[in-house]
Amino acid sequence: MQDCNDNHTETSVINVFVFAIVVPRIGLLAGVPFLATPAKFLAPSRMLSVALDVGRRDSTK
């Protein structure tokens, strides 16, 4: 009975570790484009045509 409980605890620790690594990574991958896109178009020193070209190149990668 003890072996089964230890295995369950070990699996729980691994699940928590994976969750703690994967969820923030997914959040960064999803959130950064939403922050970068408005910044491209709101930059005062960048022309609209340049911002559109940058957006096109970003979306094709």
Describe this entry's structure for a reader.
With about 60 residues, this protein is mainly alpha-helical. The protein is about 90% helix and about 0% strand. It has one domain. The chain has two helices and no strands. The relative contact order is 0.07. Keywords: Membrane, Transmembrane, Transmembrane helix.
Main features:
membrane; transmembrane helix; 89% helix; mainly alpha; 61 residues; transmembrane
- Could you give a short account of the major beta sheet? none
Task: Indicate the mean pLDDT.
Answer: 77
The helix/strand series, from N terminus to C terminus, equals HH
How many structural domains are formed by the residues? 1
The dominant shape is: rod-shaped
Helix content: over 70%
Gyration radius (Cα, Å) is 21 Å
Q: What structural class do helix, strand and pairing data support?
A: mainly alpha
List the helices and strands and how they pair.
Blueprint (H helix, E strand, L loop, with lengths): L1 H41 L5 H13 L1
